[in-house]
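Build the 3D complex.
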Amino acid sequence: MKYTNTMTLIFPNKSVNEGFARVSVAAFVAQTDPTLQELSEIKTAVSEAVTNSIVHGYGDSEGLIHIKAQLINNRVRITVKDSGVGIPDIEKAQEPCYTTGGEERAGMGFTIMKSFSDSFKVRSKVGKGTTVIMEKEISGKRY
Amino acid sequence: MIEHRTLNDSMIITIHGEIDHHSASGLRKDIDFIVKKDNPKKLVLDFSDVSFCDSSGIAVVLGRYKLMSSIGGFLELTRLPPAIRKIFDMADIGRIIKIAD
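Done.
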């Protein structure tokens, strides 16, 4: 289906960019007249995806994170992509409370992303990177 | 940014602003410094002025639960905004940590 609007954001894996990423995506989605709750859920889901790329995808290496947001009527598709280490076992990674993070991590990222989106896909290849695609129906005005 | 005050045996820490992966390590350090200095019997984390929180906040809470348990104390969360309460419920935090209103 052809999108009505789109934007792409590319930034390095610095944790300070987590806030920038979620606010930017929220600002883009604002044109669909979302509720505060929908915006909050989108910001949280984006934050989880970006944090995963930073903490797990790249770790101590440097790399870029690509976010693409597309609007198709009142549905937003958000793609977060990294070219990091990839996920060896995607099923295991999505188990609540499972984490490979060395530091203090809750292992709730995927659970939260799934809960806050209407459709959720993750594609990953070890050594190549990970892409997360989330879609959410916004209850507001139609384009 | 945090503020703290003591009430009897309890240390009440009010967290201000956003809790994400970026701010989590600073938040941990600040809370742990106060707790280790004052050794309260109960630590209460007030979330009323937290404008954003993702699973990094859950990790901070779980870590502080471990800290309080290690000194024989308790952790309580209070005034969680609904959106934040929602993700803490997803992680079933209420099963091990008291969530007060």
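Chain B is about 45% helix and 35% strand.
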